[in-house]
Write the structure tokens for this entry.
Amino acid sequence: MLDFTSIKPSQQDVINLAKQVFEIEASSIEKLIDRVDDSFIKAIDILYACKGRVIVTGMGKSGLIGKKISATLSSTGTPSFFLHPAESTHGDSGVLTKEDVVIAISNSGETDELLQLLPIIKRFGIKLIGMTGRSGSTLAQKSDVVLDISVEKEACPLGKAPTASTTATLAMGDALAVCLLHKRGFTAEDFLVFHPSGSLGKGILYTVEDLMITLERLPLIHKTTLFRDAVVEISQKSLGMAVIVDDNGQTAGILTDGDIRRAVMNHPNIADLSVEQVMTKNPKMIKKEALAAEALQIMEKYSITSLIIVNPDNTPAGIIHIHDLLKAGVA
């Protein structure tokens, strides 16, 4: 480790130190892999069976990490909130109920404010999951389950500031939340309930049907229609494309501005051309109940700007344009 206490670091020193921080913290997380054992499974079982809330508590940097863990749990289907241990002994502990589970975070396992909360937890018979770096600490001894978040060293060159230890703690909390999400069968639609705003929610909020251009506005043209008549219809509807149908009213193709330009270039005499001769056959389609985010993914994959929306019998229900997706915030 470089000594930054007595010299002014060069740019290369800074680069090297940053790389060392990443290496130390990555190594700390990697060592957690071998700690996914019976204790981790027991913690998951306790949290899954919780009928109340998961109360996360911790002081200082552990508290800040605890707030994030609590937020992640809440947003993925496990009701949770953060309880400040210092405030808990001045009345806030009244929020605890016998149905709750407590996750207490302390790298040393000897944080005074946290230990003062333990008698209340035990008095109510609340299950306690301790996240600590010391297996012989008071917190570890009082916990029903101990999750080992110990690290060999902090990334701080002084060895003082919580860095690698807080990273390991956060990763352990994420592992708990994700495993609980999976065990609960938490879906993308469930996620929307807790994220109705912002890009996370909007990609789930809208279905294709919510944003589609309906048949009333859609140029719907039979495949035997003359090409020049189809161009007139497309121009009048101002959508830059038309959906082509067969004798049964089922989707047979699409006619886009690109198809029109290629037809004019490749066919000097367009008077007798039919739509079927110049349309794009087997166009990309999507069901109206599909998520809008899925439609955007297809458009990006195939570099197209519109998708035909079809009913179960393959008749057209409408179209969806990339501009409508972007306008709705699906990106």
Remarks:
- The longest helix spans residues 164-184.
